Amino acid sequence: MSNLETRPAERTCTAGERHAGVELLSARDVPLGGPRAMTVRRTIPQRQRSLVGAWCFCDHYGPDDVSRSAGMQVPPHPHIGLQTVSWLFAGEIVHRDSVGSLVTVRPGELNLMTAGAGISHSEESPAQGRPPSLHGVQLWTVLPAAHADVAPHFEHHADLPAADSDGARVQVFLGSLGVAGQRLDSPARTYSPLVGAQLDLAAGASVELETDPAFEHALLVDAGDVTLDGDAVPPAVLGYVAPGRDRLVVTAGDGPARAVLIGGEPFDEDVLMWWNFVGRTHEEIVRARADWTAQVAEGDDGGTRYAAGAVDRRFGQVHGYDDGPLRAPALPDVRLRPRARPEA
Question: Which segments constitute the Pirin N-terminal domain (predicted)?
Fold first, then answer.
């Protein structure tokens, strides 16, 4: 998914300070594609905390009624230096990209796109026969500097490991997690130690997760009353816990609940994130924007199209999406440099 803000902030993303107990990170509403389009609830990045392990972006959306609208419509747009993770609770999304992928993702399936040196893609609700509701999360992870320029590629995984335990079901879509004596390992490729999983709990159910004590973790509650190690985490809020725990206990209240767990080793590199780009320097971001702008031309009607030869350029070309690619927003007038990370 693209960040469709017209004036995106350029952010320096760093590992944050440790926090005792559960730190609550509230979301802000971000409209995607204008005032009548869908709105997402964004918990990271934010001023309070910009990273959880290598996870650098978390958008939570829906449930949205797409039966009487076009649903999700995100035109072709570029990425560098990250992986995008598409995960649905309900509905369907059609993914197209410049390496030739055309895949529909559904609940319980993973779309994982590695941007590396540069890729472009689109996402849209199916034109025909789509489910009436769209609901899920869109997540990004930072690629470490050693892999930031890896060749772009795409993975779709429809068969992911899951375990049931006393009224709880845990499905791991990235990394590894222990549940009820089982180790659940996702087949998806990652470039830093991390984990991503969906938790579904019946009313009153509790699940103990066997976690890596080197990881920091965060729990995004989608629905229901949930506690993380005894502390309440409200819906649409991200509950963060610092490294040092080899067990996390998630418990539902009087009704069923659903949440997403993300985590990883604290990321030891400072990165800049602007629009859909992750890099290390201001110049790298400026160059990526210039490369994309060179691929996108304005038509006589004010719309956009691919410039001549765009398919051979850095971000390639997405085929099959009805409208033209997104223009890149204007860069801010300030130059930002990575800050030193706070001492833990």
Answer: 39-140
Handedness of CA 289, 113, 164, 182 (dihedral sign): negative
User: Nearest-5° angle of CA 125, CA 142, CA 313?
Assistant: 65
Q: Name the residue ranges covered by the structural domains of the chain.
A: 11-264
Determine if the pTM surpasses 0.85.
yes
Strands 194-201 vs 226-228: parallel, antiparallel or unpaired: unpaired
For 155, the token pair is 């993975």
Superfamily of domain 11-264: Jelly Rolls (2.60.120.10)
Query: Which residues 6+ apart lie within 8 Å of 334 measured at CB?
Result: 10
Using CA atoms, how far apart are residues 71 and 58, in angstroms rounded to an integer? 20
Q: Would you place residue 120 in the very low, low, confident or very high pLDDT band (cuts 50, 70, 90)?
A: very high
pLDDT at 339: 47
Q: Read off the pLDDT of residues 82-95 as tens digits, 9 standing for 90 and up.
A: 999 999 999 999 99
Rounded to an integer, what is the distance from CA 192 to the centroid of its chain?
15
CB 33 within 8 A of CB 296: no
Farthest CA pair distance, the chain: 62
pLDDT per residue over 209-232, tens digit each?
A: 999 999 999 999 999 999 999 999
